[in-house]
Automatic annotation (TrEMBL):
It comes from Ferrovum myxofaciens. Homodimer. InterPro entries: Aminotrans_II_pyridoxalP_BS, Aminotransferase_I/II_large, HisP_aminotrans, HistidinolP_aminotransfase, PyrdxlP-dep_Trfase, PyrdxlP-dep_Trfase_major, PyrdxlP-dep_Trfase_small. Keywords: Amino-acid biosynthesis, Aminotransferase, Histidine biosynthesis, Pyridoxal phosphate, Transferase. Pathway: Amino-acid biosynthesis; L-histidine biosynthesis; L-histidine from 5-phospho-alpha-D-ribose 1-diphosphate: step 7/9. This is Histidinol-phosphate aminotransferase.
């Protein structure tokens, strides 16, 4: 028998890590409850599936699956450069944009440094920070969103990274472009600003801003985007970052040589040009959001106005309602791990998925209301 425990062998910051809690996979619920028709509205995936352009190219893959991918991702970077003409050395590819968030932490953080992020910000920021033994500085949210002026005030001499998700997950809040730009002007150049735009494609036209045009002015800015959400390729794991070549070159030193797979590179290159698919995705999402908001309004459930492909809604006992929905084959996301025990996050699905979610939720909320009315 071992006389030592592995726990004693690792640094405190590793021992105290709380693992990321992903949305429950459908197959797992199927195994556990023997349910068949399950819907998953838990991970902000695209209810339309992948872009058909991606599926087309994936169906052609044969012999190249035996080969290592192009570690420099020339084809995908060239496709990206056609959309954002910066030069190929402004791009870095990741195994999901998560990989890039992690690369930033591995490159810039370590003991004796700190990273700033917002309360109710994306869970990966504190995990990536703590994994490196750096200190996380969590800045209280303002109306569930980023309080950027307070985050800037929280920057210390040892701060190397500031994470911003815009729109934010899990709250769906949004910082207007002009506020972001004004904030960037006040952030010292030695702090890398990670602008995580996983949901940027869902922004309404009148809220769009173009941070790519700011890269010359702010060499400390790293814009992160993903193919997981609007492009419908979450299963393939492809994301990308855009930033100053100096910054990108540093991240590339730390990056694993073949971090994006052959299918991921090919599918993402094809999906990028599929404007029609993005438009259908945006339209379906806007309709679904309106439907869910009206339903929440009709039974007086308050929700955080969302700029993404999900809505965070107050339901009372989040974990309990989550469990009750699971038993009806509806997977959403409880947010107690985020410090929001009264809320659930629901991804916007197809119209029939949204309807099924509301039909499952309504009796639970009505039961809750009448119980609390009796208790009064
Ligand atoms: C989903 C998400 C990501 C990216 O996920 P990947 O699949 O790793 O690209 C990044 N940031 C936020 C805020 C997200 O919600």
């Amino acid at each position: 028998m071992n006389e030592w425990r592995y726990c004693d062998l690792v640094a405190d910051h590793v021992r105290h890590l709380a693992p990321y809690q992903p949305g429950k996979p459908m197959a797992e619920l199927e195994r556990e409850l023997g349910l068949t028709s399950i819907i998953k509205l838990a991970s902000n995936e695209n209810p339309l599936g992948p872009s058909p352009h991606a599926l087309e190219v994936l169906a052609t893959l044969r012999g190249e699956l035996a080969l290592y991918p192009d570690g420099n991702g020339f084809e995908l970077k060239t496709a990206l450069n056609a959309h954002y003409p910066l030069g190929l050395d402004y791009f870095i590819l990741g195994n999901g944009s998560n990989d890039i968030l992690d690369l930033v932490a591995r490159t810039f953080l370590g003991p004796g440094t700190s990273a700033v992020y917002a309360q109710y910000g994306f869970a990966v920021y504190p995990i990536a920070t703590q994994t490196m033994g750096a200190q996380g500085i969590e800045v209280p949210a303002l109306e569930f969103g980023h309080d950027l002026p307070a985050m800037i005030r929280a920057i210390r001499p040892d701060t190397r990274v500031l994470f911003i998700a815009n729109p934010n997950n899990p709250t769906g809040t949004f910082l207007p472009g002009e506020d972001l730009r004004a904030g960037l002007r006040q952030i010292p150049p030695e702090v890398v600003v990670v602008l995580d735009e996983a949901y940027t494609e869902y922004l309404p036209d009148d809220q769009r801003y173009d941070p790519v045009a700011w890269l010359d002015e702010f060499p400390n800015l790293l814009i992160c985007r993903t193919f997981s959400k609007a492009y419908g390729l979450a299963g393939l794991r492809v994301g990308f970052g855009m930033g100053d070549p100096q910054l990108i070159a540093l991240l590339n030193r730390v990056r694993q040589p073949f971090n994006v797979s052959v299918p991921g590179l090919r599918a993402a290159s094809a999906a990028l040009g599929d404007r029609g698919f993005l438009e259908r995705t945006r339209t379906l999402n806007a309709q679904g959001r309106r439907f869910l908001e009206e339903a929440f309004d009709s039974f007086g459930a308050s929700y955080i106005p969302s700029f993404g492909n999900f809505i965070t809604v107050a339901v009372g006992q989040g974990r309990k309602i989550y469990d009750q929905l699971l038993r009806q084959g509806v997977i959403v996301r409880p947010l107690d791990a985020y410090g929001l025990p009264h809320h659930l996050r629901v991804s916007i699905g197809t119209q029939s998925e949204n309807q099924r979610f509301i039909e499952a939720l309504t009796p639970l909320l009505i039961a809750r209301t009448s119980v609390s009315a009796m208790a009064v």
